[in-house]
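$ run holo --ligand "flavin-adenine dinucleotide" --emit tokens
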Amino acid sequence: MGLKTKQQYLDSLRAMKPTVYMFGERVDNVVDNPRLRAGIEATGATYELAELEEYRSLIVTQSTLINEPINRYTQPPKSIEDLVARVKINRVMGNRVGTCFQRCTGLDCLSALSIVTYDIDKKYGTEYNARFIEFLKHVQKNDLTCNAGVTDVKGDRSLGPAEQEDKDMYLHVVERRKDGIVVRGAKAHQTGSLSSHETIVLPTRALRKGDEDYALSFAIPMDTPGLIHVVGRSSLDTRELDGCDRGNARYSKYCPTIIFDDVFVPWNRVFMCGEVEFAVDMVNRFSAFHRQSHGGCKAGKIDCMVGAALVMMDYNGTDKASHLKNKIIDMIHRAETLYGCSLAASYEGKQQSSGNYFIDPVLANASKLHEGKEMSEAGRLLADIAGGFVADLPSDRDLSNPEIGALLKKYLKGRTDIPVENRIKMFRFVEKLVMESADTISDIHGGGSPEAHRITIFRESNVKAKKEAAKRLAGIE
Ligand SMILES: Cc1cc2nc3c(=O)[nH]c(=O)nc-3n(C[C@H](O)[C@H](O)[C@H](O)COP(=O)(O)OP(=O)(O)OC[C@H]3O[C@@H](n4cnc5c(N)ncnc54)[C@H](O)[C@@H]3O)c2cc1C
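-- output --
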């Protein structure tokens, strides 16, 4: 098949029967649950856009593996052009949905595996790469969405996996069988797990001798027995359930914790099992790809923020205020720096032994470090420009209340030629852009916390060459 329509994507999720809990209750119908559906719609946009002529050349590419057109979100980079396209479509998607569309993380896992499974095989004569290629064909043929099962719950952060009192703080093998392995543990903050068909598990950190049971990578369907999704609370999350005050009329983000309660994984889906020294490479490759991905989608989100700020200025009658225009410029330059850094990481990418391409990790991490600070600055500027109702706008229910609705509409007006309803809608959208915790906190922690970006920047930078340049110019032998 190669490409799914959005409808086929929704139907395929409907056919799955994952175990899901949310707000204290079991959820049997994921696709029609308003909270989850808003997230699924955001991922659905990656299928929708592939159907539109306008975006086809950007989102659809030809697979040399299955000889069919495929969605780029199933294509590990085979060239610089692929690396650049990743950033460009992420910007289009971020702009399209104004929140996280939840499909880049799976591609980042596929991209890391396309490099590291080859390297493990080269050292140990294992068959991980062949298994991975078969899995990738399955993903491409069925246009599947995958999620990134990377972050373990980690228990006491000062201890390694094998040192924890409770050995399940990091996902690990509890049984090796002839036909596969049984795993136990939990992965936290699983962006869009229920918008996805498969979870791809990678280790969350560097490992050492003694940690063999934790050096794990595999992929399994989201409705595999023993896999339990517990959807996390996040700010504004009941807005979709309430059916009002949503801000973003269609799209949202949610992040479950997934518990692996003795889950069976067949060997043909295992891509690493025990090779401790490769855990660090898996993590570093995945995180560098993911930090680069953010440079595209978050620039696209700032585009929405700039648009919202400009509209609010129109509605408030502040469109001529020069200090607000300056703040708009401050927002735009943040988006373009993020985007530029992420694009540069692509253009400076290099081919790896497996034949696949890897981005420049220093530029990718510089982009993400920039995002961690500058997205919140963009949000601060947006809230400043829009005004205080970002914080405490009365509910749509009060606005439609016959006793006070007319009074509220009178007092919530900005410019008299602008319908008050439009001003209210835009305030709600700004609230969502600035305060949707499931999205905004990923600016800081998504793809690893800021210190991880800083460490990578120092480790991967050629500091020796910089010292030599300084000495040469100072005339020191
Ligand atoms: C909205 C959102 C979406 C996400 N989506 C995904 C996803 O789809 N898939 C996925 O796998 N993960 C996802 N993540 C997880 C993300 O990668 C982690 O949040 C991040 O790696 C930090 O891990 P943590 O949350 O456990 O925080 P911690 O690791 O506890 O970090 C908290 C702070 O403590 C510091 N710290 C931690 N350990 C140590 C130590 N040993 N020594 C010194 N300092 C330390 C960190 O630098 C940080 O400042 C997401 C996170 C968020 C917030």
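-- notes --
Residues 6-276 form a domain with the Butyryl-CoA Dehydrogenase, subunit A; domain 2 fold (CATH 2.40.110.10).
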